[in-house]
UniProtKB/TrEMBL annotation:
<feature type="transmembrane region" description="Helical">
    <location>
        <begin position="598"/>
        <end position="620"/>
    </location>
</feature>
<keyword id="KW-0812">Transmembrane</keyword>
<feature type="compositionally biased region" description="Acidic residues">
    <location>
        <begin position="56"/>
        <end position="68"/>
    </location>
</feature>
<feature type="compositionally biased region" description="Basic and acidic residues">
    <location>
        <begin position="9"/>
        <end position="55"/>
    </location>
</feature>
<feature type="transmembrane region" description="Helical">
    <location>
        <begin position="529"/>
        <end position="554"/>
    </location>
</feature>
<dbReference type="InterPro" id="IPR036259">
    <property type="entry name" value="MFS_trans_sf"/>
</dbReference>
<dbReference type="InterPro" id="IPR011701">
    <property type="entry name" value="MFS"/>
</dbReference>
<feature type="transmembrane region" description="Helical">
    <location>
        <begin position="293"/>
        <end position="310"/>
    </location>
</feature>
<dbReference type="GO" id="GO:0022857">
    <property type="term" value="F:transmembrane transporter activity"/>
</dbReference>
<keyword id="KW-0472">Membrane</keyword>
<feature type="transmembrane region" description="Helical">
    <location>
        <begin position="261"/>
        <end position="281"/>
    </location>
</feature>
<feature type="region of interest" description="Disordered">
    <location>
        <begin position="635"/>
        <end position="660"/>
    </location>
</feature>
<feature type="transmembrane region" description="Helical">
    <location>
        <begin position="464"/>
        <end position="483"/>
    </location>
</feature>
<dbReference type="InterPro" id="IPR020846">
    <property type="entry name" value="MFS_dom"/>
</dbReference>
<feature type="transmembrane region" description="Helical">
    <location>
        <begin position="317"/>
        <end position="340"/>
    </location>
</feature>
<dbReference type="GO" id="GO:0005886">
    <property type="term" value="C:plasma membrane"/>
</dbReference>
<feature type="transmembrane region" description="Helical">
    <location>
        <begin position="352"/>
        <end position="369"/>
    </location>
</feature>
Length: 660
């Protein structure tokens, strides 16, 4: 499926925000050429026969033909980055049209001189300026066409004042690489406090997703409903994960990271209280969905917070640690819920505990979580400077944004689904990750049937074997940390251009280990003649596979789709949340119908069928990406250039030998 006008507009904005990094993503200007073929009148350099518009010719006549513009060059990929400052390029002809993909955005001389003068020696400062431009152009509502609506009268009989002479001169920026207001320059202790609050909020959300599982028995007994209705409480919560990012992702870009976290923690606590005090099962189910909707916010925003406060060298490890903590939540909660349910407190206290966690996260975020999003920090700086100087033209780029509902729907719903169902890489990887995610929530049923049913443990003790999965995930986390150094080394040797297939060796190891763990659990846990520790130890395999497959495939999507990674991940999140919601609904029927051993054989067989997937992408991924509409594949272009250089070099060497 070809790219749409909206896709090209976003690509143009990305290119204008950070031209050199965009060129490293798309070295042969594939996307520009595609659009130029559709609109030759806007690219006379590629299509000389196209008619130039009169106003463009007039502006070109008034422009100094020798004018050049220096461009800060940034390469910011994965956990390693290398900043360069090089080259000049001809300034594009200015246009009288609104800023879209078709037309160049306006960059005034004053901004060019300001960036390239005193900051030329500060590579980090250049990187941050360009990153902020990228964030601005990627925000919903930052790029809008001119409206045809008639403007109201200015009032008081006054005419409209003239526009600011050079708007960029009034845009505030950070004061160099060591600006203490930038989140990456904050003291390490402050960063740790923010990280702890963010991770606690995420842990509360994932903890709440599975603590209801042992409480479902109490709900069924009190409201006289069936097992499938009790299980629906877990499914609806996870279903909220699918729809929440549509709200929280654009909100975090428009209003910063702090406000969504504060609102979501409060909402999470409120709906947990609603579940705990529910008078009927309908209230329980509806509240569980909205509890998941609010709980999805930390899972959406916390990784962005880490990107704000940690540099490229430490960000990868920070996100991996965050992912490990998130995966532990659904595995730690069942034993807490089990002991609460079997005590005199009853099932309702599982939700009171969730509400306490939510409200504690709300209080911590309200009083101790500072805004980390650089564009919002600059908004506060601009507001302060306006008050102090009485110069009301001073502003931050973020304040130029107007919310565009159509753009919001396209970016957060339309494009992710289009990429999900038209890109083979995203679709197949999303199916695999969705299966893994579904199995994670299927374990809530399977472990209860094995350790409470077969081994006759109570609800609390019967949930302790989940710690086998936790230990397996910790082993996988250590493996990710151990392989990170070699990955960074290869990345730097490759001119900081990521090769997505480098992410796959750990997945290739984790896939068969995960499948083996599923068979191990099924064929050792269906009978009490085998000691309980044997199926418990299977969690080492399944936990390792869960974390290694999930995290590294997510990184593979990011490396493969670069400027479209956010949309690809959004589609992936939607599919895996649907699987996580549906799997628990049929799990009990499957295990009770065909037995635990054959039920695990069925899901294990599916896992075996999926084992070749990372191997296929490892050996044939480049060929598949080369045919993709959305994947830019800069590594493939670099390989082509290297092959061409070798071919030319071989010819010259042969010619030299012949002359001798």
């Amino acid at each position: 499926m070809p790219l749409t006008e909206a896709d090209y507009e976003d690509l143009r904005a990305e290119a204008n925000a950070e031209p050199e990094r965009f060129n490293s993503w798309d070295p042969n200007q594939r996307f520009r050429t595609e659009y130029a073929n559709l609109h030759p009148e806007d690219y006379p350099d590629l299509h000389p026969e196209a008619q130039r518009k009169p106003e463009d010719l007039e502006e070109d006549a008034n422009r100094d033909e020798n004018e050049i513009e220096q461009i800060p060059t940034i390469s910011d990929v994965s956990s390693a980055s290398e900043t360069r400052y090089e080259g000049v390029r001809a300034r594009p002809a200015a246009r009288s049209h609104p800023s879209t993909y078709r037309y160049d955005t306006e960059m005034h001389r004053s901004e060019t001189h300001r960036i390239n003068g005193p900051l030329e020696r500060h590579e980090t400062a250049l990187e941050r300026i360009n990153t902020q431009r990228t964030q601005h152009f990627g925000t919903v509502g930052s790029v809008r066409t001119q409206t045809r609506k008639k403007l109201p009268n200015f009032g008081g009989g006054k005419p409209y004042p003239p526009s600011l002479p050079e708007k960029e001169a009034y845009v505030v920026e950070f004061d160099g690489a060591d600006d203490p207001t930038h989140a990456q320059n904050w003291p390490f202790k402050k960063k740790l406090i923010i990280s702890a609050i963010a991770i606690w909020s995420s842990l509360a959300a994932t903890f709440g997703s599975s603590i209801f599982s042992p409480a479902a028995v109490g709900v069924e007994r009190e409201f006289h409903v069936g097992t499938e209705v009790g299980t629906l409480g877990t499914s609806l919560f996870v279903l909220g994960y699918a729809f929440g990012p549509v709200i929280w992702a654009p909100m975090s870009e428009l209003y910063g990271r702090r406000l969504p976290i504060v609102i979501a923690n409060f909402g999470f606590g409120i709906f947990a209280i609603a579940i705990a005090t529910a008078a009927n099962v309908q209230t329980v189910m509806i509240s569980r969905f909205f509890d998941g909707l609010f709980g999805s916010c930390p899972l959406t925003v916390v990784a962005a917070i880490f990107a704000d406060i940690y540099s490229n060298e430490t960000r990868g490890l920070a996100v991996a640690a965050f992912s490990a903590t998130v995966f532990m939540g659904p595995l730690i909660a069942p034993f807490v819920g089990g002991f609460l349910t079997m005590s005199y407190l009853g099932w309702r206290w599982t939700e009171y505990i969730s509400s306490f966690m939510g409200f504690s996260g709300f209080i911590l975020a309200l009083f101790f979580l500072e805004e980390t999003y650089p564009p919002l920090i600059l908004v506060a700086k601009a507001s302060k400077l306006r008050r102090l100087t009485k110069n009301w033209g001073i502003h931050a780029k973020q304040e130029e944004i107007e919310v565009d509902m159509r753009e919001l729907v396209v970016k957060n719903v339309g494009r992710p689904l289009r990429i999900l169902f038209t890109e083979p890489i995203v679709l197949l990887i999303s199916v695999y990750m969705a299966f893994i995610y579904g199995i994670l929530y299927t374990f809530l049923t399977a472990y209860a049937l094995v350790f409470q049913g077969v081994y006759r443990m109570n609800a609390g003790v019967g949930s302790l074997p989940y710690f086998g999965l936790v230990v397996g995930e910790l082993i996988a986390f250590c493996a990710v940390v151990a392989t990170n150094k070699s990955y960074v080394k290869k990345l730097k040797a490759n001119n900081n251009i990521p090769v997505p297939e480098w992410r796959l060796p750990l997945v290739m190891a984790g896939a068969p280990i995960f499948a083996a763990g599923l068979f191990w659990f099924g064929w050792t846990g269906y009978t009490d003649s085998i000691p309980w520790i044997v199926p418990t130890l299977s969690g080492l395999f399944t936990g390792f596979g869960l974390f290694s497959i999930f995290l590294q495939l997510l990184n593979y999507i990011i490396d493969a789709y670069l400027m479209f990674a956010a949309s690809a991940i959004a589609g992936n999140t939607f599919m895996r949340s649907l699987f996580g919601a549906v799997f628990p609904l049929f799990a009990r029927y499957m295990y009770e119908g065909i037995g635990i051993n054959y039920g695990q054989t069925l899901v294990g067989s599916i896992a075996v069928v999926l084992i070749p997937l990372p191997f296929i992408f490892h050996f044939y991924g480049k060929r598949i990406r080369a045919k993709s509409t959305f994947a830019p594949a800069p590594d493939i272009e670099q390989d082509k250039k290297r092959d061409e250089e070798r071919r030319i070099g071989s010819k010259e060497e042969a010619k030299t030998n012949d002359e001798r």
